[in-house]
Specification:
mainly alpha; 2 domains; 7 helices; 2 strands; 68% helix; elongated
Length: 170
């Protein structure tokens, strides 16, 4: 894990774990409200009991947050999980009537608490992209490992300026 990933992973992971732990003890009214909002955006959720849905949501949040907090989980994997999770939240925000202003993605007053989830999409994508981008040390090591055999092959072919069949001309 890169040093620059630590603040992203700690803050986002702690936020999501806290949200999941809070939902574990959700009362009936809260679980019905969460279920109603989710099933409005994702109709398949409507077939699931509201208590079961909220327990599964809590478990998912704890798993995603835990993946971010555990340094043994590669950044690209934690970023992929966060991007999927937060993408679903943003999808719910965009699909729920009254959350956005007409003909816009800008939030209404009612949608503002949900629109903020877009920062998690950005964090997830940053971790995902950065996880697949080689570090400076890795790029340097690859250049060194590749440069020597390429140069040796060029010398052997006599294609390196100042060299002919491996013998330097003065």
């Amino acid at each position: 894990m890169r040093l620059s990933h630590i603040p992203l992973r700690l803050t986002t992971g702690a936020y999501i774990v806290n949200s999941g732990v809070t939902k574990l003890n959700a009362d009936d009214e809260t679980s019905k409200g969460l279920h109603s909002m989710a099933s409005g955006a994702y109709p398949v959720v409507g077939d699931v009991d509201h208590r079961t849905f909220v327990k599964a949501l809590a478990a998912g949040e704890i798993a995603v947050g835990g993946a971010l907090l555990l340094p043994i989980v590669p950044s690209w994997l934690a970023g992929a999980a966060l991007t999927g999770f937060s993408g679903a939240l943003v999808g719910m925000y965009l699909r729920t009537p009254g959350m956005t202003k007409e003909d816009s993605v800008r939030p209404t007053k009612q949608g503002t608490p949900f629109a903020k989830d877009i920062w998690m999409v950005g964090t997830g994508l940053a971790l995902l992209i950065d996880g697949f981008t080689p570090s400076r040390a890795m790029r340097k090591a690859v250049r060194r490992a590749v440069a020597k055999p390429v140069r040796q092959a060029a010398v052997a072919r006599g294609t390196v300026k100042g060299y002919a069949i491996g013998v330097r001309h003065r």
